[in-house]
Automatic annotation (TrEMBL):
Gene3D superfamilies: Immunoglobulins, Zn-dependent exopeptidases
This protein's record includes keyword Transmembrane helix: no
Annotated GO MF terms: N-acetylmuramoyl-L-alanine amidase activity
Organism of origin: Candidatus Allofournierella merdipullorum
Matching InterPro entries: Ig-like_fold, MurNAc-LAA_cat, N-acetylmuramoyl_amidase_3
A Pfam family assignment: Amidase_3
Domain of life: Bacteria
Gene Ontology CC, one term: outer membrane-bounded periplasmic space
Signal peptide annotation: 1-24
Chain ranges of the MurNAc-LAA domain: 822-929
GO biological processes: peptidoglycan catabolic process
Stated name of the protein: N-acetylmuramoyl-L-alanine amidase
Keywords: Hydrolase, Signal
Alphabetical list of PANTHER family matching this protein: N-ACETYLMURAMOYL-L-ALANINE AMIDASE, N-ACETYLMURAMOYL-L-ALANINE AMIDASE AMIC
Length: 936
C-alpha cells in the first residue's frame, strides 16, 4: 500500500503508467546477497559475445563465472539488454542472442555460489512507434515498456537484485516533440525531470512487485552536482553533472522510489582533483543514507595502468577498496572489467586477492615509496659509496635503475651503491612514483687529519695521528724524518653512532725528537694515502718540541709549579702519548688533589673533540688544563698517611685514609690485568687487587681493619721510595663493580660497590639511546631508533624488576643530553649501567655488539654480546672497547649495547616482532643477572 501511495503522489505520469501492472513473485533457490559485495560486472562484447553460437557463448559464460569464483568474488552483474536487443527470452522485445543468455548466466553464476544481479539499461527499449533500439529521450511508452519488461524479467529469473542504468533524459528537438504530446501542461523543465523520476519509480515498483526481497539499485555517474552548481552537491569539478545534464531529481527519486542501493561509477582516482574517488563515494553514501539506502562502488579497473591521474599506480584499485571499507554505508564494490582483473596489471589482482584473504596489511598498501637516506636528492660527496634506506609497499615491485630491489616483508630496503667519479644518477620506481638522485662524486682519499693547527709537545712524546680516509687505503704519516704506516680501525665512540660513512679512522703514533735546551720546530705532520691506484697527500699540525722541562721536585729545598684539581673528578690521560682520546687504563683524580706540572701547556686539535689543552703532572699522567688551577711555585714536601678507617653500608664498603700535608696525586692499576695501547683491557677475569700508588707520601699508620663486606678481602700498605702503595685485595678474582675516590676534609675516601646478592638488592640503570627530536637512526620516518630503544629498555626494566632489582630508566620522551644521562645515572648510584641502542651500517651488516670503557665493564659486555646474539641466533660481533660519553666513568661498570642493525632489512623486520624484542630484553636481563651472580 505504501508503494501505491508513493506512485500516486509522484504525479499523474507515474500513476498512469503502472495502473493495473501486477507481476507474480516466484519462489526460487537464489544465492543470498553477500554482506560485503565483491562483484564483477560482465560486459557484453568483451567478456562474452551475444552473437556467438549457443555452445560458444555458454563456454564463454562458464569460463567467466569460474574465473570470478576463482578470484574469490561473491557476486556477478549481468546485462539484461544491449542496443541490439534483449539477452533474455520474451515476447515483448527482440532478442540479441540466439538463446536465453540471461537465464544461462543466472544458472552458471548460482552453480558457482555467486549472487546474481541484473543490469537493466533503460536507454535501450521500445519507443513510441514500437521500435527497439537505443533512444536518448524518455517517453511514456518507453517507461511503460521498460517497467513491464522489468517486472517480467524479475519474476522469471529471480535475481538477487536489479540495477538500473541509462535512465537519464535530454533536451532535444525529439524530447520537445514528445513533451508536447504527453505533458505540455507540466512545463518543459518539469516534464524532462519528471520522466526520469517516473522511470525510476515505475521500475522499482515493477521489480518489488515481482520479488519483494530483490535489491533495487541505481548505477550513477560520479557527480550529481558540483557544489558550485548546487550547494547540496559534492566538492567536485566534474564536467558532467547528473542534475543538469541528465535531469536527475534525486530528492524526488529517493522520496517516491524504493531505491535500496546506489552503485557509483567511480571514474576518478584517489588523486583526481576534479572528481576524487573518496570525495565522490563519501558524498553519495551520506546522501543515500538520508533515505535509508546504501552505496557500493563501481571500480573502473579497466583504467588501471592508464595515463589518467592516479590510475598509473598498480595499487590504485587496492586503495579504493580500502576506502570503500572505511566509508559508512558502503556495502562493497563491483569491478567493471573481468578482463582487467585477468590482465593483473603490475600484480594488482594478485595483491587484491591476498588482501581479501587477509594475507596483507592495509598499512602496507597505503605505503608510498620513501627514500629517507640520503636526505638530499642532489649533492656532491667524497664518499665512494652511497647507502640508500627507505620503505615501500612490499606487494608491488621496487626498481633501482630498472633492476628490482630486494626488501624485507614490510617493504623496507637498504642498498649500497658504488659511486663513480663524476655524476651518478639513481632512479627508484615504485607503483607510479619515481625518486631520482643525482650524486656527484669527488675522489678525496684523505678527509681529515688529526692533530691539526699548531701544537707544542714534550721531547720524545708519541704524538697520536688519526686520519679519516677511505676504507682499504694505505695511509702513512711522517714527521721530522720519522714515518709510520697507520692502522685501519673501526669507528667507535659517540661520533660512530648511526654513522655509515666509508671513511674510517687510521691511527698510529709518531715519536718526536728528544728535547734540547731550546724549542725545536719539527715541521708539519704529512700524510700520504693510496686507494685504488690513486695517491693523495695532506698536512696535519705543525709540531714544536718544547725545551727541556723542569723536573718535578723530589727532595727538600727543590721547587716546582704546583696545581690543584678543581674538577669533581679530573680525567687523566697517558703522559707519553698526546691526543684527545679518553683512555680506559687511566683513572680520575678527585677534587683537591695537588701535583707539580712538568710540561708547558700542550695543545692538540681534532675534529671529534675539538681543541684540547693539557699539562703533564709529576705523577706521570696528563690532565686537561681546564680541570686544574695554579697554586704557584712551591717547595717539595713529603706528605703522610696518619690514620685509616673502614665502614660499610648496604651498598658500599668504604676505606678512608687521613692525610697530613699535601693531598698528593696517585695512580691506579689492577694486578693481573693487561691493557692495549688504546686503553682496552685484554681480560679482567684475572684481576686480584686494585693498586693505588700515592706519590710523595709516607705511610705513618697501619692498614685499617676492613668492615664486613663481600668485595674486599684485605687492605695493605707498603712503601716504595717516597711513594705509598695501597693494595685492595679482591675476595674473588675479577669481581669488581667500580669505585669512587673523594676527599672528605683531609681524608681520602675510597668507596667501593659491594656485590649484590644476584638481582636481589641490585640497582640497575637502563639508558635507552636518543629521544625527543634526536631520533637516532631512522628508516623512512617509519622506524626510528629512539622508539625501539625505549621499547626494549622498558621490557628489560620490567624483567629486572620482576626478579627483584631496583631499576631506573632514562625518560627519553624529550631530548636528553649525554651529560644529563651521566649525571642522572651517577645520582642513582647503580651497580651497573646499560645503554641500549640499535646499529646502522651497510645492508649486509648484522648482529650484536657491546662497547665497554673501564676494564671491569668488559665481562658484562662479553656476557651481553654473547647472550643476546645466542638468544637471537644472530652474529656475535663481540665486546669492544669504545669511548662513549655514557660509558667513560669509573664508578660502576657501564656498557652500550647495539642490539641489531636497523639498516639490515631482515633484522629490522625481526625487530618489529614482539617475541623478538622480548628475546632481546630477556637476554640482556639474563646477561646482567649472570654477571652479578658470577661475582659472588
Amino acid at each position: 500500500m505504501k508503494r501505491i501511495l508513493r506512485l500516486l503522489a509522484a504525479g499523474s505520469l507515474c500513476a498512469v503508467l503502472l495502473s493495473g501492472a501486477v507481476f507474480a513473485e516466484e519462489a526460487s533457490g537464489t544465492t543470498a546477497s553477500p554482506a560485503e559485495m565483491k562483484a564483477v560486472v560482465l560486459q557484453a562484447g568483451q567478456d562474452f559475445d551475444p552473437a556467438a553460437g549457443e555452445s560458444d557463448s555458454k563456454a564463454q559464460l562458464d569460463a567467466a563465472m569460474s574465473k570470478i569464483a576463482e578470484y574469490g568474488m561473491n557476486a556477478v552483474f549481468f546485462p539484461a539488454n544491449t542496443s541490439d536487443g534483449a539477452l533474455f527470452a520474451g515476447e515483448t522485445w527482440p532478442m540479441a542472442s540466439s538463446y536465453d543468455l540471461l537465464g544461462y548466466a543466472a544458472e552458471a553464476a548460482r552453480a558457482q555460489g555467486l549472487s546474481f544481479y541484473v543490469l537493466f539499461d533503460a536507454s535501450c527499449g521500445v519507443d513510441g512507434q514500437g521500435q527497439y533500439g537505443a533512444h536518448g529521450n524518455l517517453s511514456a511508452a518507453a517507461i511503460q515498456s521498460s517497467s513491464k519488461v522489468l517486472g517480467e524479467l524479475t519474476g522469471t529469473y529471480q535475481p538477487n537484485g536489479v540495477y538500473l542504468t541509462g535512465y537519464y533524459n535530454q533536451k532535444t528537438a525529439e524530447s520537445m516533440s514528445i513533451y508536447r504530446s504527453e505533458g505540455a501542461s507540466m512545463g518543459y523543465d518539469n516534464w524532462v525531470r519528471e520522466c526520469v523520476s517516473s522511470l525510476v519509480v515505475n521500475a522499482s515498483a515493477a521489480v518489488k512487485s515481482a520479488k519483494s526481497d530483490a535489491v533495487f539499485g541505481l548505477v550513477t555517474d560520479p557527480v550529481w552536482a558540483n557544489q558550485t552548481t548546487d550547494p547540496a552537491g559534492s566538492a567536485t569539478e566534474a564536467d558532467f553533472e547528473m542534475a543538469t545534464d541528465a535531469y536527475v531529481d534525486l530528492n524526488a527519486i529517493f522520496a517516491w522510489a524504493d531505491v535500496d542501493q546506489v552503485m557509483v561509477r567511480c571514474t576518478g582516482s584517489l588523486t583526481d582533483e576534479a572528481q576524487n574517488f573518496k570525495t565522490v563515494l563519501t558524498w553519495w553514501a551520506q546522501t543515500a543514507s538520508q533515505y535509508g539506502a546504501g552505496v557500493s562502488a563501481w571500480i573502473c579497473n579497466d583504467r588501471l595502468g592508464g595515463d589518467e591521474p592516479g590510475w598509473k599506480a598498480p595499487d590504485q584499485v587496492m586503495r579504493q577498496i580500502i576506502e570503500t571499507r572505511a566509508v559508512d554505508g558502503c556495502v562493497g564494490a563491483a569491478y567493471g572489467s573481468l578482463s582487467a582483473l585477468d590482465a593483473n596489471v603490475g600484480g594488482s589482482t594478485d595483491v587484491l586477492l591476498r588482501y581479501y584473504a587477509d594475507q596483507i596489511e592495509e598499512q602496507d598498501i597505503l605505503t608510498d615509496l620513501t627514500v629517507s637516506t640520503p636526505e638530499k636528492r642532489t649533492y656532491t660527496t667524497q664518499e665512494p659509496q652511497v647507502n640508500f634506506y627507505g620503505a615501500s609497499d612490499p606487494n608491488f615491485p621496487l626498481t633501482l635503475n630498472g633492476k628490482e630491489l630486494e626488501r624485507n616483508s614490510e617493504g623496507v630496503f637498504s642498498v649500497e651503491m658504488n659511486l663513480e667519479p663524476g655524476l651518478n644518477t639513481f632512479t627508484f620506481e615504485h607503483k607510479e612514483k619515481s625518486v631520482v638522485y643525482k650524486i656527484t662524486r669527488e675522489v678525496v682519499i684523505i678527509k681529515e687529519v688529526s692533530p691539526s693547527g699548531s701544537m707544542t709537545v714534550e721531547g720524545s712524546t708519541q704524538v697520536g695521528v688519526t686520519v679519516m680516509a677511505y676504507s682499504g687505503s694505505t695511509i702513512t704519516a711522517s714527521l721530522g724524518g720519522a714515518s709510520v704506516t697507520l692502522t685501519e680501525q673501526e669507528l667507535t665512540g659517540d661520533t660512530a653512532d648511526g654513522n655509515t660513512s666509508s671513511y674510517v679512522p687510521y691511527k698510529g703514533t709518531l715519536t718526536v725528537p728528544a728535547a734540547t735546551e731550546s724549542q725545536q720546530d719539527v715541521g708539519n705532520i704529512t700524510v700520504s694515502g693510496t686507494w685504488s691506484g690513486i695517491t693523495q697527500s695532506a698536512s696535519g699540525a705543525r709540531v714544536y718540541v718544547a725545551a727541556l722541562p723542569q723536573q718535578a721536585p723530589g727532595v727538600e729545598g727543590e721547587k716546582g709549579h704546583l696545581v690543584e684539581v678543581t674538577a669533581s673528578q679530573a680525567r687523566t690521560y697517558p703522559a707519553g702519548v698526546l691526543n684527545n682520546d679518553p683512555n680506559g687504563s687511566c683513572f680520575p683524580l678527585p677534587k683537591g688533589t695537588v701535583d707539580y706540572i712538568v710540561s708547558d701547556k700542550l695543545t692538540y686539535y681534532d675534529d671529534t673533540y675539538g681543541s684540547g689543552e693539557y699539562y703533564i703532572l709529576g705523577s706521570g699522567v696528563r690532565v686537561s688544563a681546564s680541570s686544574v688551577s695554579s697554586l704557584g711555585e712551591a717547595e717539595w714536601q713529603l706528605s703522610s698517611l696518619s690514620g685509616a678507617n673502614s665502614w660499610a653500608d648496604g651498598q658500599y664498603v668504604y676505606v678512608s685514609f687521613a692525610r697530613s700535608g699535601r693531598k698528593t696525586a696517585y695512580t691506579v692499576s689492577f694486578d693481573g690485568v693487561g691493557y692495549s695501547s688504546s686503553g682496552g683491557v685484554n681480560s679482567f677475569a684475572g684481576a686480584t687487587s686494585m693498586v693505588v700508588t700515592l706519590k710523595d707520601t709516607r705511610a705513618d699508620t697501619a692498614a685499617p681493619g676492613l668492615a664486613s663486606n663481600n668485595l674486599l678481602s684485605g687492605v695493605s700498605l707498603s712503601q716504595q721510595g717516597n711513594d705509598t702503595v695501597i693494595r685492595f685485595d679482591l675476595r674473588k678474582a675479577g669481581s669488581f663493580l667500580g669505585y669512587r675516590a673523594y676527599y672528605d676534609g683531609d681524608n681520602l675516601v675510597f668507596r667501593f660497590n659491594q656485590i649484590p646478592n644476584g638481582l636481589s638488592g641490585a640497582k640497575i640503570y637502563i639508558d635507552p639511546g636518543h629521544g625527543g627530536y634526536d631520533g637516532g637512526t631512522s628508516i623512512s620516518g617509519m622506524y626510528t631508533e629512539k622508539t625501539l630503544n625505549a621499547d626494549i629498555a622498558n621490557r628489560v626494566a620490567d624483567i629486572l624488576r620482576s626478579r627483584g632489582a631496583t631499576v631506573q630508566v632514562t625518560d627519553t620522551s624529550g631530548y636528553v643530553s649525554l651529560d644529563s644521562r651521566v649525571n642522572q645515572s651517577q645520582s642513582f648510584s647503580p651497580h651497573l649501567f646499560v645503554s641500549i641502542h640499535h646499529n646502522a651500517g651497510v645492508s649486509s651488516a648484522k648482529g650484536t655488539e657491546v662497547y665497554y670503557f673501564n676494564p671491569y665493564s668488559r665481562q658484562l659486555a662479553a656476557n651481553l654480546s654473547g647472550g643476546v646474539a645466542g638468544a637471537l641466533g644472530t652474529t656475535n660481533r663481540g665486546d669492544k672497547y669504545g669511548a662513549y660519553r655514557v660509558t667513560t666513568h669509573m664508578e660502576f661498570p657501564a656498557v652500550l649495547v647495539e642490539c641489531g642493525f636497523l639498516t639490515n632489512p631482515d633484522e629490522l623486520s625481526k625487530l618489529q616482532n614482539d617475541s623478538y624484542k622480548n628475546a632481546i630484553a630477556t637476554a640482556i636481563a639474563d646477561g646482567i643477572q649472570n654477571t652479578l651472580t658470577s661475582m659472588l
